[in-house]
């Protein structure tokens, strides 16, 4: 039972770390596309959030980190939620397709190996 709980906890932690990496990648790409220094732009909001400045975000037009809520740069929660949900579903579909393809390829290879083994056995009997 403890092993199952430990594995479940490890999966949860791994998922959270993966999401953190995803958001950092998103911020890095946003900074690069805006012509900003991605190292500064990615680390500065994290530092400000750690200091309690939860509304700190990237203002691409000014090229700096500002209070996004104070700048009236807001978007409905549904937009962000939908984007994340759709991206997650897309990745899940790709992974399922990869699994199907992998299983089909392995099955095909196994059949080919079996046929090859049978043909070799038949040729040795002659």
Automatic annotation (TrEMBL):
Keyword flag Isomerase: no
UniProt cross-references to Pfam families, sorted A to Z: Cpn60_TCP1 (PF00118)
Signal sequence interval, chain numbering: none
Gene3D superfamilies xref list: GroEL-like equatorial domain
Domain of life according to the entry: Eukaryota
InterPro entries assigned to the protein according to its UniProt record, in alphabetical order: Chaperone_TCP-1 (IPR017998), Cpn60/GroEL/TCP-1 (IPR002423), GROEL-like_equatorial_sf (IPR027413)
A single MF term (Gene Ontology): ATP binding
Keywords: ATP-binding, Chaperone, Nucleotide-binding
Keyword Chaperone included in the entry's annotation: yes
PANTHER family: CHAPERONIN (PTHR11353)
Name of the protein in question: Uncharacterized protein
Source organism (scientific name): Ensete ventricosum (Abyssinian banana)
High-level lineage: Eukaryota, Viridiplantae, Streptophyta, Embryophyta, Tracheophyta
């Amino acid at each position: 039972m403890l092993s199952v709980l430990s594995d479940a906890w490890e999966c949860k932690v791994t998922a959270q770390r993966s999401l953190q990496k995803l958001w950092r990648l998103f911020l890095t790409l946003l900074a690069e596309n805006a012509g900003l220094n991605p190292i500064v732009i990615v680390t500065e909001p994290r530092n400000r959030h750690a200091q309690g400045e939860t509304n700190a975000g990237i203002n691409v037009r000014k090229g700096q980190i500002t209070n996004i809520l104070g700048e009236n740069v807001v978007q409905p929660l549904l937009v962000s939620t939908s984007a994340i949900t759709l991206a997650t579903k897309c990745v899940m579909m790709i992974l399922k397709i990869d699994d199907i393809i992998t299983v089909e390829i392995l099955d095909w290879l196994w059949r080919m190996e079996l046929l090859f083994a049978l043909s070799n056995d038949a040729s040795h009997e002659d």
